[in-house]
């Protein structure tokens, strides 16, 4: 059942948790529908890309999901951002 979820997802006593936080708590706080990203999973995948091609310029396409917090996290992991307009960089 959890194959579609990131590695930090657990089913504990019938409660879905994402990196230790109950999904129901997230839904109560932020409402639904809700997209939740795992910081641990994002960082690990960014590191895998960097290790696979240490000399390559690895960039994230900002058109996919232009979120400032995500872009900062990826920058901390050495991943750049690809933008085609100045508005995407603002």
Give an overview in words.
This protein is α+β, with helices and mostly antiparallel strands and 90 residues long. It has two domains: 31 residues, no CATH class; 53 residues, no CATH class. The protein is built from four helices and five strands, in the order E-E-E-H-H-E-H-E-H.
What are the secondary-structure elements, in order, as H or E? EEEHHEHEH
The general outline is flat
* Radius of gyration over all CA atoms, rounded: 16 Å
| Major beta-sheet overview | 3 strands, antiparallel
Low-confidence spans: none
Strand fraction band?
Answer: 15-25%
Write the layout of secondary structure elements.
Elements lengths: L8 E4 L2 E4 L2 E2 H8 L8 H14 L6 E3 L6 H9 L3 E3 L3 H4 L1
Q: Summed up, what is this model?
A:
This protein is α+β, with helices and mostly antiparallel strands. It is 39% helix and 18% strand. The chain is flat, with a radius of gyration of 16 Å.
Features:
two-stranded parallel sheet, 39% helix, 90 residues, alpha+beta
